[in-house]
Backbone:
């Protein structure tokens, strides 16, 4: 994949479409077109620049020459990783992932602890009939704010009578962010460990809680012969079938924020919206910037593990202001990265940010 | 069998690096070799006389000319052999100049290679059979598919030259896209007026048969005698035509497949074609801000349209000019990757509109945010290195040309090929740009790739001239290298029938074997390669010929 990206550098015609769609351009010193130009001519690249990229992929999705600028960022970062010339917090995240299989360095043995909060026992994948695996993100497993999401989704699936299993402490980081940070070797290691587990337990379907995990397993793990879906796809089907009933009214104006890895990158636009539209007494609003032109929360591509030094208005703030303008009191999303990045500015403005699963828990 | 070998010195060209005497010595004593002659120039009159007299004197059954490549003097040598009373398909040319003497200085190696080459000629020619070129009659009539500007131009030329023309258009009226253009640059006329003039001209010619709201539904036969069935509300009409011109045009690119541009979602985003049609109804006034986006549906690999559509830069400039002419105080900005105003006068037109105040920014707009107050365009001024968000009241997308919608259907019916972009493929991009691989079937206009009006008209006329040249003879020779079937070996599996692009293979239900329609066969050999029982082969290119030739080349000298 890297070699392919390298060869495409040469065909860039510097049209600037990548910069135009970039969530970082204009307000930060980051200019993706210029980085590609510098890469074409092998000019030196200022070391802080590549770390602005949030891996939203708008550049690659729109590039008329299929240059794949986001892959070129990974290439630049890779050489920086190799030289050890990377921000300290990133370095730490990589080391932790190497040792504990999660970027925060929390003990691997506690990865499945969220399941203890359930009122029922979730079987290990090996004990299930249909071999449907609920795959949690490292954030879901260890972050106190997000740990409620796997609990919710498991509860909802259970309520709908939908059989599934988990891997518990055998699960390891999907590697989506690791690959985007540029540590391709570590990414491959994580991928191989996960695939070995999927194979051993005969996994038929993966229900990913995070769009980031879904993306890499669907598009970068190679052909595993396993169906990979996001949890909102499963839940929206269960609601449509009537297996999950959303009866309690919820007086609320909800606006849905498209996560980049779910929406523009994998074109899952409808299921989360269908879930929200099925709710009683809920006004569903839309951002002007929605679906393919949704504004990135700036959490991806390693941005979760460190912050750039230059002060500028964060996209999270813009998003919250836009949501208020649209008349919403709650921003709904379906990605732990978006949730974390939108929540701080939202608290200041006094509106809620909720995962789709949290909203569903309120109405069943 | 009596074989004569004629070795040419080609002055010093062959003689200086090949041992001619050695060659002669090698072949002289061999079985069946009646004579081995050499001469400084076999193509000269004395050289030709030597060959002719030797054929007569020795009663030769095969003639091997070891000289230059077959690409030179082949017709002359064939006629010479025919004059001497021998079937010209019993002649074998061996290239000992281009493929041997010119390739190196080593006389020993070259001589050894020349021996192998001549020997291969002898081995293969042993299997030759006398063949006859067949003559067929050609109908002086043509089918033109597509009544746009290109097809109409072709029809007018052919009809005036006395060819019976069947012009088939699927829409209600002739004229294609041009009919809908409000302002044709640089003549500044309405497209409708141009089309109506051309239609009037066609109507005065009584050998043009116009079929509107009609489609081609079946097609068969071979050059000179193609059979086409045209369908319309009146039923089916069968016509026999000598040749065909495909001029089915293009489909305008539909920008809704790029949702980030909001086309089809927000009414303030329109295409250049829509601008032409409702120029005077648009909600713009003095002071309005209009953006024009170049290269929409062109030069875009991600959506499978890597090519330049050639017309959209002029269309974009024309759009900007029209707005500036009407509203002097409007703000019109054109966003481009490169301005390719290549037709004659295009560059001057570009300059004139700049003088009128049309602004050009080198940026490829990435997304349009449909705010209530205005459309916010996000892009980067790549010359200043400045990302921007700019607000406009109207966005005009300068759309490119996509392949015609019916490309697959027509290609399938006619058995002609599409290129990688799904336009029709020409036989050779430089030397045969109007021809397809099938004799008498030509392509014209934008169905073979984006073209402007002038180019489409020229393309249509050029195809018409080429077709006229073939039809006017009234007859055609058919190469004798056609496929033939060994009925004993044929199992009737019909794989060759599927492989045949010329539709020359027919299945005999009674005998459960296939037959070849020699008039239709192009001699491509696909059937030969497909047949699992080696039951079908090309005359003159039998498997045994190739096998023996290879063994002759590889045998030790």
Residues:
């Amino acid at each position: 994949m890297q070699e392919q990206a390298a060869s495409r550098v040469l065909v860039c015609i510097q049209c600037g479409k990548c910069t135009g769609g970039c969530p970082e351009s204009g307000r930060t010193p980051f200019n993706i077109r210029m980085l590609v130009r510098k890469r074409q001519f092998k000019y030196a690249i200022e070391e802080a620049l590549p770390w602005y990229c949030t891996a939203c992929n708008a550049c690659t999705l729109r590039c008329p020459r299929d240059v794949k600028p986001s892959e070129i960022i990974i290439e630049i970062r890779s050489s920086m990783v190799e030289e050890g010339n990377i921000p300290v917090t990133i370095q730490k995240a990589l080391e932790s992932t190497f040792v504990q299989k999660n970027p925060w360095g929390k003990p691997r043995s506690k990865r499945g602890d969220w399941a203890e909060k359930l009122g029922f026992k979730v079987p290990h994948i090996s004990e299930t009939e249909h071999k449907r695996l609920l795959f949690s993100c490292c954030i879901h497993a260890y972050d106190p704010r997000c740990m409620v999401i796997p609990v919710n989704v498991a509860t909802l699936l259970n309520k709908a009578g939908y059989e599934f299993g988990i891997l518990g402490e055998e699960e390891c980081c999907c590697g989506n962010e690791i690959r985007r940070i540029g540590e391709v070797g570590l990414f491959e290691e994580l991928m191989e460990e996960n695939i070995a587990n999927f194979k051993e337990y005969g996994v038929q379907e993966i229900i990913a809680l995070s769009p980031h995990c879904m993306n890499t397993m669907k598009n970068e793990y190679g052909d595993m012969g396993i169906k990979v879906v996001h949890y909102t796809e499963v839940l929206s089907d269960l609601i449509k079938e009537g297996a999950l009933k959303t009866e309690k009214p919820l007086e609320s104006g909800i606006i849905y924020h498209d996560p980049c890895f779910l929406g523009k990158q994998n074109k899952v636009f409808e299921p989360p919206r269908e879930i929200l539209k099925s709710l009683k007494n809920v006004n569903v609003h839309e951002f002007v910037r929605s679906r393919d032109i949704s504004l990135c929360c700036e959490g991806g591509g390693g941005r979760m593990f460190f912050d750039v030094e230059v002060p500028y208005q964060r996209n999270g703030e813009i998003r919250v202001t836009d949501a208020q303008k649209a008349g919403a009191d709650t921003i709904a999303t379906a990605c732990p990265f978006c949730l974390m990045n939108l929540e701080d500015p939202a608290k200041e403005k006094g509106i809620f940010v909720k995962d789709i699963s949290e909203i569903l828990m309120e109405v069943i | 069998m009596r074989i004569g070998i004629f070795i040419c010195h080609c002055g010093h060209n062959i003689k200086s690096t090949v041992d001619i005497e050695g060659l002669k010595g090698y072949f002289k004593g061999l079985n069946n070799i009646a004579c081995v002659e050499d001469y400084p120039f076999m193509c000269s009159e004395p050289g030709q006389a030597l060959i002719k007299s030797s054929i007569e004197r020795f009663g030769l059954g095969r003639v091997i000319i070891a000289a230059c490549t077959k690409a030179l003097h082949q017709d002359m040598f064939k006629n010479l052999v025919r004059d001497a009373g021998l079937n010209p398909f019993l002649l074998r040319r061996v290239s000992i100049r281009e493929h041997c003497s010119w390739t190196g200085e080593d006389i020993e190696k070259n001589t050894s290679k020349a021996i192998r080459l001549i020997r291969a000629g002898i081995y293969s020619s042993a299997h030759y059979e006398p063949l006859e070129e067949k003559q067929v009659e050609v109908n002086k009539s043509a089918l033109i598919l597509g009544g746009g500007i290109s097809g109409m131009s072709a029809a007018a030329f052919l009809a005036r030259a006395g060819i019976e023309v069947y012009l088939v258009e699927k829409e209600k009226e002739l004229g294609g896209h041009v009919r809908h253009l409000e302002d044709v640059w640089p003549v500044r006329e309405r497209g409708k007026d141009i089309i109506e003039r051309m239609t009037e001209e066609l109507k005065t010619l009584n050998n043009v048969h116009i079929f509107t709201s009609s489609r081609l539904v079946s097609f068969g036969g071979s050059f000179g005698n193609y059979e086409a069935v045209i369908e319309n509300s009146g039923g089916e009409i069968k016509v026999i035509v000598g040749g065909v011109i495909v001029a089915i045009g293009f489909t305008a690119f539909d920008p809704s497949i790029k949702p980030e541009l909001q086309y089809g979602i927000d009414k303030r985003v329109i295409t250049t074609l829509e601008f032409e049609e409702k120029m005077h109804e648009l909600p713009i006034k003095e002071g309005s801000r209009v953006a024009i986006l170049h290269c929409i549906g062109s030069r875009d690999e991600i959506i499978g349209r890597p090519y330049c559509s050639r017309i959209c830069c002029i269309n974009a400039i024309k759009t900007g000019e029209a707005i500036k002419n009407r509203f002097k105080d409007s703000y019109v900005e054109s966003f481009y990757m490169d301005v390719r105003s290549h037709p004659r006068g295009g560059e001057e037109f570009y300059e004139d509109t700049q003088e009128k105040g049309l602004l050009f920014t080198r940026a490829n707009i990435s997304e349009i945010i449909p705010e209530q107050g205005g459309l916010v365009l996000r892009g980067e001024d790549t010359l200043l290195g400045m990302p921007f968000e700019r607000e406009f009241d109207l966005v005009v997308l300068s759309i490119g040309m996509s392949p015609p919608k019916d490309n697959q259907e027509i290609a399938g019916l006619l058995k002609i090929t599409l290129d990688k972009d799904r336009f029709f493929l020409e036989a050779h991009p430089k030397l045969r740009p109007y021809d397809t691989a099938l004799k008498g079937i030509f392509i014209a206009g934008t169905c073979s790739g984006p073209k402007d009006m002038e180019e489409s008209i020229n393309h249509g006329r050029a195809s018409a001239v080429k077709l006229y040249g073939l039809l006017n003879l009234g007859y055609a020779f058919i190469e004798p290298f056609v496929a033939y079937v060994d009925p004993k070996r044929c199992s009737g599996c019909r794989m060759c029938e599927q492989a045949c692009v010329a539709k020359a293979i027919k299945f005999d239900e009674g005998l459960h074997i296939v037959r070849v329609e020699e008039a239709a066969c192009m001699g491509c050999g696909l059937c030969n390669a497909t047949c699992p029982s080696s039951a079908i082969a090309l005359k003159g290119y039998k498997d045994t010929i190739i096998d023996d030739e290879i063994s002759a080349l590889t045998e030790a000298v």
Q: What stands out?
A: Residues 3-131 of chain B form a domain with the Rossmann fold fold (CATH 3.40.50). Chain B has a mean pLDDT of 95. The radius of gyration of chain B is 31 Å. The interface with chain A takes residues 259-260, 295, 299-302, 337, 362-372, 378-382, 385, 387-389 of chain B (CB under 8 Å).
